[in-house]
Design brief:
With about 325 residues, the protein is mainly beta. Helices cover about 0% and strands about 45% of the residues. The protein has strands at about 5-15, 25-30, 30-35, 40, 45, 50-55, 60-65, 80-85, 85-90, 95, 100, 110, 115-120, 135-140, 145-150, 155-165, 170-175, 185-190, 190-195, 210-215, 220-225, 240-245, 250-255, 255-260, 270, 275-280, 285-290, 305, 310-320, 325-330. The protein has an eight-stranded mixed sheet, with no helix packed on it. The radius of gyration is 18 Å and the shape is globular. The protein starts with 5 loop residues before the first strand and ends with a strand. This is Nitrile-specifier protein 5. Keywords: Iron, Repeat. One of its GO terms (biological process) is glucosinolate metabolic process.
Length: about 325
């Protein structure tokens, strides 16, 4: 990654009606994207199948991973997922007509792609996070899942929790800087946890990268000018993903909602179509110069994950006309 420019190229992998959805999750394991949850019509979870897409070029197809276990997560929207040791982890979300947070007493769903099996990990700790939706998750790649923020039954949260898989224990950590928010994003890179963006109930948040140190259990913040020129504009329901570009650790943020809809979760606001890279070492932003004419439309409420070390996958979401998208894209740096 040079000081002047970062380039990237979009490749459309697939577009399928069965994948049309927003507020879903996607997790990549061994070059296979696994899509779960989301809605086609507002406030109606679409299904609880695991849709798999082999990311082997432009001839990919979507298939459903038939579960080998009788117990599977209920249909839900606004959930959050992460991967660790080639397994996928999922926590809470909204479901049912009332769209209340799904309360599973702090349990975490674990999906093993190799066997298409689900298991529900019940926490051994007496305390656990409250149920929520439009939260975010990531892992440290070793033994710990991180869960942050989102929307409980009422209001929004700024809490941070760690779930250690080896002991099945939840630990409450230092809360992130206010305001509490939903639709925010976190990523783990270079030994630290990074958080940005989100919606506090009145406006989109931006202009700040908040950094959590696991060793010190403290947060620090880097401010930037969120004008779309020197740094990305404020947004929510976007993404934040760790990559390596030119051998350097970086974070990618892209797309998202800039102005909320008056209809809330039932409508689409103003969406963004830009991609930005944050160099972790020098704390600088660069807008990605997209090569070629092919690129995804502006969207929010989509799903995204890292592919390898220097590419990301984007699936579905909500466009500005309030339509659910069923496409799959790869952005290579």
């Amino acid at each position: 990654m040079t000081a002047s420019q970062v380039t990237g190229k979009w490749t459309k992998v697939l577009d399928a009606e069965i994948l049309q959805r927003s507020s879903q999750v996607v997790a990549v394991v061994d070059n296979v994207a696994h899509v779960f949850g989301g809605e086609l019509r507002p406030r109606e979870p679409r299904d609880n199948d695991v849709h798999t897409i082999v990311l082997n070029g432009t001839s990919s197809t979507s298939t459903i991973a038939k579960p080998s276990t009788p117990e599977v997560p209920s249909p839900r929207v606004g959930s959050a997922s992460t991967t660790l040791d080639k397994k996928i982890y999922l926590f809470s979300g909204r479901g049912g007509l009332a769209m209340s947070p799904i309360d599973e007493a702090g349990a975490v769903w674990e999906f093993t792609p190799q066997t298409s099996s689900w298991s529900l990990i019940t926490p051994a700790s007496a305390i656990h996070p409250p149920p929520r939706s439009y939260h975010c998750m990531t892992s440290d790649g070793t033994d710990t899942l991180y869960l942050h923020a989102g929307c409980p039954e009422t209001g929004r949260l700024s809490d941070l929790w760690a779930f250690r898989l080896s002991t099945r224990e939840w630990t409450p950590l230092a809360s992130a800087p206010d305001p509490p928010r939903g639709g925010t994003s976190i990523a783990f890179a270079d030994g630290a946890l990074y958080r940005m963006n989100g919606f506090d109930g009145k406006s989109e948040q931006g202009g700040c990268v908040d950094v959590y140190s696991p060793e010190a259990n403290t947060w620090s913040s880097y401010e930037f000018v969120a004008d779309g020129v020197r740094g990305p504009e404020a947004r929510s329901v976007s993404a934040l993903l760790p990559v390596r570009i030119g051998g350097r650790v970086a974070l990618v943020t892209l797309f998202g909602e800039r102005d909320p809809s008056a209809l809330g979760h039932q409508g689409a606001g103003k969406m963004l179509d830009d991609v930005w890279v944050f160099d972790v070492e020098d704390r600088s932003w660069r807008r990605v110069d997209v090569q070629g004419a092919e690129r995804p439309c502006a969207r929010g409420w989509f799903a995204a994950d890292v592919l390898g070390e220097d590419a990301i996958v984007v699936q579905g979401g909500l466009d500005e006309s309030n339509g659910r998208l069923g496409d799959v894209w790869i952005l290579s740096f």
